[in-house]
Hints:
Layout: E1 17-23, H1 39-54, E2 60-65, H2 75-85, E3 89-96, E4 105-110, H3 115-132, E5 136-142, H4 145-148, E6 154-161, H5 170-175, H6 181-196, E7 207-211, E8 217-219, E9 226-228, E10 238-242, E11 249-252, E12 260-267, E13 278-284, E14 287-293, E15 303-310, E16 317-321, E17 330-333, E18 335-340, H7 350-354, E19 356-360, E20 368-373, E21 380-385, E22 390-395, E23 402-405, E24 413-421, E25 425-433
Parallel strand pairs: 1-2, 1-3, 3-6, 4-5
Antiparallel strand pairs: 4-6, 7-18, 8-11, 9-10, 10-17, 11-16, 12-15, 12-18, 13-14, 13-16, 19-20, 20-23, 21-22, 21-24, 24-25
Amino acid sequence: MRILIPLLLYTQMASAWSVCLDPGHGGSDNGAVGIYYTEKEANLDVAYIIRSYLEQLPECESVAMTRLTDEYVSLADRVAYANAGGYDRFISIHHNAFNGSVQGTETYCYTDGSPESFTFRNTVHPYIVDAFGYYDRGVKTAGFYVIKYTEMPSILCEASFLDYTAQWDESWRFFIHRLDHDGIEGWAYCAGVCESLLSPVTPSYLCRIVDNSYPLFSMENPEHWSSGDWGTPFGPDYVWMTVSGDTETAEWKPHIPVTGYYDVYLWWVSGSNRATEVKYSVHHHYGEEEFYVDQSTGGEEWYMLGTFPFISGSYGWVEISTEGSVPGQIMVADAVRFENTTSGIEDDASSFMEHSMLVSPNPAAAPVRIELYGIPMVPEIFIYDIDGRLVQRVLSQQQPNVFLWNPEGCENGIYFAVAVSDGSSIVSERIIYLK
């Protein structure tokens, strides 16, 4: 899915600036609570997406976050952190709640705030409204602590109502990243910041970066890694380890916004003590490809590894491994960039047979026969209704990857059959049920 939002592109060079992101709530404070997701989770997800986009801009000196994990941070500590850093903009990220029947987007600045805060609010708000297309509840003022006491232009946005269930379940959209729900919101924030701070360009919606400081980066044995900031790392730092006789791995696992082919780039800080045979493995839609990279040279810029097919979601990843490296050398793990190209997997006819689900009959009459092709055997599939509620788990029949779903008792409507294999591949198909 592509977002068609007009951008203002400025020809003048923008001066350097910095942003502090404030993912609301955390720890013991859940904020709004939906059936499938909490506000504290959604806020943190969106914050990391905003950061991924902003850090692509050369004029963005730094992106700070008042919390990096699911931890409680007091309002006073959030304000103190932002003021101590002297950031140019402050964004408090929130999602609302009322009674389950209200939906919409509203953005606040402090009632007696600076003119720049009002301008910042008015610039960012339309982007968030356009991203979701929800009801525009308008720009407003309030005395919220974090926007009242921060010293830079500050806003607080309630992008949507997380508890909304009247026509769809908003928490489910965040929980499954439906149509890149949090990614769309994160990009919209970035676009508003870029316009507000006169950035000459806005990062492409279909370009995502995973840095070693993000939750989407993980290490097999974190205690074996150290952090460093020598040279020019991407983001605040990188992690490194001394190669030993044991194999150590780490991986970057992005959330791909749309299915297609993506250029994969690597970033590391080179040095004379770096490993010269660093193994990278790209796990993509069609399988796995391995590469060996010399980290003793180059570095501190994006190195293109190749172009690979990924399906939307978190089903592909890049792995780094000490396998094959010389013991005693240093291996660095920093950032990986995934940038969409013009062609898509949907143009490749073979992709349908690689991973497919056949539903018959459709529109359905009980029972519904569901067959899987091109993925390892799975023991069960899941039937969801259009609001994302789990209707039934269906076990396989005597034939591998063949299932029979009996929808008796279900209302007429649209359902979705979903199969997940080893957590790395997923197929789904829409079922129209008419009694």
